[in-house]
Amino acid sequence: AGAHSNRVHENGVEREDCRAKGGAGGFKVAVLGASGGIGQPLSLLMKMNPLVSVLHLYDVVNTPGVTADVSHMDTSTVVRGFLGKEQLEDALVGMDLVIIPAGIPRKPGMTRDDLFKINAGIVRTLCEGVAKCCPNALLNIISNPVNSTVPIAAEVLKKAGVYNPKRLLGVTTLDVVRANTFVAEVVGVDPKDIDVPVVGGHAGITILPLLSQVNPRFSFTNEEIEYLTNRIQNGGTEVVEAKAGTGSATLSMAFAAAKFADACLRGLRGDAGVEYCAFVASEVTELPFFASKVRLGRAGVEEAFPLGPLNSYERSGLEKLKKELQASIDKGFAFARQ
Ligand code: NAI
């Protein structure tokens, strides 16, 4: 940043912008797709995060309005807007964390894979920008189908010679957020006191909640297991149908993405014990990408934990999901290599 960028004008007075320095623990974060249904509330939540010193909002439409609006919130985070392809690089230079919720959402009757054609290209373009302008940033991929867009991002970064698997994360937090909510409802406790590991991927049967490993432990009847597993796997579709053609989950997704981004930033700061489920390059199973609980740290994904002991219901769910997940991963690879 040049000398000028730290000067601000307020009420006719020029002074040094102490906010832009970011101090200890101040991180620079970009949201790509910031004007969308997820992007707007996510931008609001990131403006409220004290770990974020600079927030860049990028989209191909409407960022001036979203930026002006969010910038009036009286928190110390500096907000800057970027509009259109020509400003993508400026949006990305110097970022510590890039969150990508750009792309079209589902309508009733669509699977996440139906979004592939459009969103694959969007994610590729945005990741080419990341590779060029902030190759060391952590990347949080929200755009669906996550099972394919994360492999696409990996291939784009590889092609550019900057791929670091520890820094690329597919956001599956909404699956965990839903699982915590639905399980809490069934057992009658506060959802904040529940942690449900959800592994595999982020679509239909590839979403595998491990109800035998809920913390704290609960025992469920077979009917409860069936009900909870189905509801967690189809939580996205529940919202898509309720919204009746106007989109998919945006508010709960923004909440989940903000939680996950905060965890990534706490990891980057060096906090101990930051553990979240995420869809990452993995050796936990034979699949090249897999969602499981990971430890977040200065390097990004410091460690992916093994799945632990599964019961027979979960083992069979795991076997079933592998084929679909592998096919989605391969589809992403094929797109990026063509
Ligand atoms: P939306 O349509 O409301 O917003 C998408 C935004 O992306 C729009 O503002 C659009 O202008 C922007 N955009 C399109 N092309 C772009 C480009 N090349 N560069 C930058 N921005 C671009 O959609 P919504 O509801 O916000 O969903 C976004 C994505 O998130 C969808 O793919 C959806 O499937 C996914 N999603 C993922 C979830 C997850 O758990 N990972 C949960 C819910 C949605």
Automatic annotation (TrEMBL):
Lactate/malate dehydrogenase N-terminal domain span: 28-170
Lactate/malate dehydrogenase C-terminal domain boundaries: 172-335
Catalytic residues (positions): 202 (proton acceptor)
Binding site for NAD(+): 33-39, 59, 119, 142-144, 253
Residue ranges crossing the lipid bilayer per the database entry: none
Domain of life: Eukaryota
Coiled coil feature spans: none
Localisation: Peroxisome
Pfam families, sorted: Ldh_1_C, Ldh_1_N
CDD domains for this protein: MDH_glyoxysomal_mitochondrial
Oxidoreductase recorded as keyword: yes
Keywords tagged on the record: Glyoxylate bypass, NAD, Oxidoreductase, Peroxisome, Tricarboxylic acid cycle
GO cellular component: chloroplast; peroxisome
Binding, substrate: 106, 112, 144, 178
Gene3D superfamilies documented for this protein: Lactate dehydrogenase/glycoside hydrolase, family 4, C-terminal, NAD(P)-binding Rossmann-like Domain
Catalytic activity annotation: (S)-malate + NAD(+) = oxaloacetate + NADH + H(+)
InterPro entries (alphabetical): L-lactate/malate_DH, Lactate/malate_DH_C, Lactate/malate_DH_N, Lactate_DH/Glyco_Ohase_4_C, Malate_DH_AS, Malate_DH_type1, NAD(P)-bd_dom_sf
UniProt-recorded Gene Ontology molecular function terms: L-malate dehydrogenase (NAD+) activity
EC code(s) of this entry: 1.1.1.37
GO biological process, one term: tricarboxylic acid cycle
Main location: other
Family per record: Belongs to the LDH/MDH superfamily. MDH type 1 family.
PANTHER family, sorted: MALATE AND LACTATE DEHYDROGENASE, MALATE DEHYDROGENASE 1, PEROXISOMAL
Quaternary structure annotation from Swiss-Prot or TrEMBL: Homodimer.
Protein name: Malate dehydrogenase
Species name: Sequoia sempervirens (California redwood)
